[in-house]
C-alpha cells in the first residue's frame, strides 16, 4: 500500500527515492504494474460480461476499428509507452545525467499511478448499469483526462522541477506533453494503415 500511495501522490519524488537506494519501504514497481494490469483485465472482463448480459439497458455506441484495437490491446500499448515516454524524459529532463534505465524507473512509477487512475475509471464504468448514475460513466473519460494531466505535471515536477527554472521546467513539460500526443497520433496512423491493408 505504501508504494501505491507514493506512486499516486508523489510519483516523481518516490521514483528518486527508489533510484537513490531508499527501497526498503517500496515494493518492486514493475511487479506491481503486472499485478495491477492483471487486476485491470479481470475488472474489464467482468464489465464486458455484464455489458453482454444487460446490453438492452445500454445505448449503443459508435465505434471505429482503431478504437476497437486500442481498447482490446490497451494494456499492451501502455507497456510500449514505458520505454518511449522514458526516452522522452531522458531527452528533455537530463540535467542531472540520469541513466536511461533510471528514467525507466521514473516513468514506471508514473505508470503505476496511471494504472490506478484507469482502474478507478474501470470501476466507475459500472455505474452505466444504474440508470440514475449512468451519466457518471458518460463523463468518466473526461474525469480521467482531468486527473491525468495534473498527475503527469506533478510527477515531472517532483522528479525534475528543482533542476530547472520555472520557465525552463514549463517549456520542457510542454514539449514532453506535445511529444506524448504526437506519438499517440503516430500510433493511430500506424493502426489505420494496418487496418486498411491487413483487415
From TrEMBL:
Record key words, sorted: Membrane, Transmembrane, Transmembrane helix
TM annotation in the entry: 29-56, 76-93, 105-126, 132-153, 174-195
Protein name: DUF3667 domain-containing protein
Amino acid at each position: 500500500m505504501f508504494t501505491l500511495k507514493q506512486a499516486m501522490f508523489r510519483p516523481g519524488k518516490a521514483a528518486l527515492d527508489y533510484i537513490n537506494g531508499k527501497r526498503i519501504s517500496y515494493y518492486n514497481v514493475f511487479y506491481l504494474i503486472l499485478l495491477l494490469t492483471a487486476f485491470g483485465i479481470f475488472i474489464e472482463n467482468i464489465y464486458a460480461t455484464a455489458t453482454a448480459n444487460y446490453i438492452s439497458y445500454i445505448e449503443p455506441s459508435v465505434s471505429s476499428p482503431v478504437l476497437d484495437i486500442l481498447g482490446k490491446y490497451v494494456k499492451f500499448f501502455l507497456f510500449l509507452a514505458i520505454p518511449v515516454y522514458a526516452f522522452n524524459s531522458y531527452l528533455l529532463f537530463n540535467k542531472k545525467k540520469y541513466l536511461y534505465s533510471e528514467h525507466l524507473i521514473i516513468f514506471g512509477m508514473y505508470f503505476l499511478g496511471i494504472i490506478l487512475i484507469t482502474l478507478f475509471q474501470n470501476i466507475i464504468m459500472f455505474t452505466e448499469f444504474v440508470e440514475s448514475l449512468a451519466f457518471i460513466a458518460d463523463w468518466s473519460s473526461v474525469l480521467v483526462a482531468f486527473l491525468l494531466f495534473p498527475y503527469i505535471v506533478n510527477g515531472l515536477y517532483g522528479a525534475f522541477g528543482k533542476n530547472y527554472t520555472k520557465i525552463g521546467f514549463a517549456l520542457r513539460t510542454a514539449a514532453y506533453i506535445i511529444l506524448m500526443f504526437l506519438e499517440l497520433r503516430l500510433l493511430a496512423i500506424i493502426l489505420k494503415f494496418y487496418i486498411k491493408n491487413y483487415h
